[in-house]
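Predict the 3D structure for this chain.
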Amino acid sequence: MKLRRVLNASISSAALALTLSIAAPAQAQSAWGVEATDVQEDEANTYGVLSNGMRYAIRQNDTPDGSASFRMHFDFGSLGESEAEQGLAHFIEHMAFNGTTNVPEGEMIPLLERLGASFGADTNAYTSFEETVYMLDIPNANEEGVDTALFLMRETASEMLFTPEAVDREREIIVSERRVRDSAGLRNFRDMFDFRIPGTRYVSRFPIGTDATVRAATPEMFRDLYNRFYRPENATLIVVGDIDVAEIEAKIVERFSDWQGVGAAGSIPPLGDVNFDRETEFDTFVDPAIGEGVAIYQLRPYEDQVDTVAERMEGQLRSLSRIIFNRRISRIANQADSPILGGGYGAGSDEGVADYTSLSIDTRDGAWEQGLAIAEQELRRALEYGFTQAELDYALTQTASSYERAAAQADARTHPQLAGALVNAATENDFITTPQYRLELFEAMRPQLTLDAVNETFREAWSEGAPLVRVTAKEDFGGEEAVAAVFNESTTVAVTPPEDTDAVIFAYDDWGTPGTVVSDTMIEDLGIRTVVFDNNVRLNIKQTDFEPGRVRFSVNMDGGSFALDPASSTAAGIYLQIASAVGGTQAHTADELQEATAGRQISTGINAGSDTFSTGGVTTPDDLDMQMKVSAAFLTDLGLRPEADARFNAVIEQVWNSLLSQPGSVFGFNSGALIADSPYTDFPTREQLDAVDREALLASVQAAAADGAIEIGIVGDIDPEEAIAAVAQSFGALPEREAEFSDYADERVIAFNDLSDDGITDFTHTGQDDQALVGSIWRTIDDDDYRAAVTHQMLVGVLRLKGIETLREEFAATYSPSVGGSTSSTFEDYGTISMSAVIDPGLTDQTLGLIHRLARELRDEPVTEDFLLRARQPVIENIRQAQENNGYWLGIVNDAQSEADRLNRVRTQVETIMSITPEEIQAMAQQYLTPERRADARILVAPTEGE
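Done. Predicted structure below.
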């Protein structure tokens, strides 16, 4: 089998050489140690290696303008730890922000905030089994920003201090992070590793470590581990952005060339061996908070493949087989009363240990037996009978269009996206290639992407190793013996050949006489063209070059939650969001729509906002015409077939217990009810979700669709005339609509709770008993007064900074305090500011007291100008970048006619934010962050029976 694959790959490579000119990779990439092959690399990347062994890669990119992304990659993760060092690789990552030779503890984050980088969004890091990566996105890539970023990366590389005081303060933050992440999903992940690759270091070296090793580690242990692995020969620095490559390269050489490792270099211990001769084995994982499902794995020895055209040919064949097989699973999942939610086949690697092929199926609660039978039999059906030509044609169409879109949208790739690809290349034996090259390579391969080749590749993927079968469930069901019995019985059931499906004729191609434009004006300073059709449909267009080859759109239709029964409106809105795409339209099932739109970038389904039913997404200039027809079908001819019920019920079954096990989710569910007494702000109960009336919901959407006002926003790389034509042939051809949206005046007035009682409301969660949450939520204002709303935004920003500095850095009470706020444009006098923290249960009173203290401090005295700068500058830089982002403009364009009075906020946004003073923030805190406007909550683990 292996020999045949090599021979076929060689033949493929030779044939491709006749049809595609492929250059050898540039010498600079070879300097990274990647073996030169026949793959043509992207020449826009500049690679280099310093004399000390540190590698670097630099790329000029303009999306977004004026900014840059920096990544520092270390070829070291938790697999390099000793038994006593478990969790220390991740701990070191934290310590990078806690004092270096030239940056005092507590100064790194403020330094970046003053430059406009926010902690978490722009400044972060992660540690995995194999790597540690530091990430820094600089919103202003001027000389100061670039020099600061390189300075901080150099400090991280060799200048961490690990003072005893800083280490001690960080310990409980690490323990808190472990506490927050200790979910059913993580425990399931651990169990899966122990089953799939038992005895390897992956099982015993999860990056979060253990509380015992984290609490016992000494500063000397940190320095030893740091010196062993934070070395130039283990490091790769990546810079992508609106920069001069030569200047950046010179700065890297100047700043990093003198870096030398300290002491002896470390090495990764053996990762352990896997028994590839195992017989079929079975495993179960049971937890009330887990999503139910089944998985089948087959393992083979690990191979670090060289990146060649022949290997890419193999990968393309695997990809086609994956598209086909996964579509079969999707068809089953989309059937009414299906026992499964979805799933599919894939391949992966436990690096250095094993490669594997996998088939995973998500099932409804209690339906694992049917799910396992479906998985086993559909896999066997594909292995015995292969795929059909019609299925391959569909997969080829989808694949070709994805390559074409990627090539057309190549210039829309952002700095973080490109930097992420280079981070991956730093650890893989692969090349970075251009989207255009990948398209040309696919076109050259296409004659050889035959049905026989795809079927053979799929069979080879499952040809090695015995099946390893695993089931996750919420309740005990008989364990491994029960799984073995179901699996073995399924193998005795005969499977039949697959049936070809008939071609689908798109039912919504002709909407009648296209609409006529009766009004066409231009908002010159914002570049928004506003159009009204003779049926009163409104269209707003902004042509941009921010994302070449990409168009974003939204459609709002009068209705939403306010048009539904108030008692069930929020539950019905969640139903629509989850199930409407699966429920299809009156003329087409979801599968038929997928067939009819093959090869196109089309979004489906609708949502319910407070006062509109809406749809939206991303498409291409060529696909906008069909997208508008599909969107019109979902809004005016919604299907909500019985399969929508099946999907919605299954999803709720799968996630509900998981949400109840997380204190943060429980707080979020109940926050609205703490402040207001309204069905529109309450999160629905499980009973309300179970009771959604699909037929009544469909009737409400259809009633709104009869003549409800419609406003459409289109932003992106589109000729406005083509956008007008696309809408004219779909929404513009509908019967006459109402010209204005309903005001829903009565629904916008809601009742508020009396918050004068300073008691605390208790809730429970079903997760780990060492997890608790305390939080406060204050009732504030709506966004009617723009300056007040901006002041509110700044108040939330300074409260967030205070939360991080006090709850995390000073008291180490929590890994990450959650601070949020909003001013409603829907409800009168409604807004909130909240702060919460997941903590050790023993710290509830202390932490709640600290939250109250922070609010009191903001009331008692204005923040300093520097503190306000740190909160404000990331917001300003975010706005500056957002103004070159289609998503930002879509939020403005989509209601540019119905909410024209709010457009001036766009014009004055930055000016208003810059003018907010510390005294205004203090005044708002004095008015709203007060005990009489505050509700407190405490979430503790639910007592077990008998307690």
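The first helix runs from residue 2 to 19.
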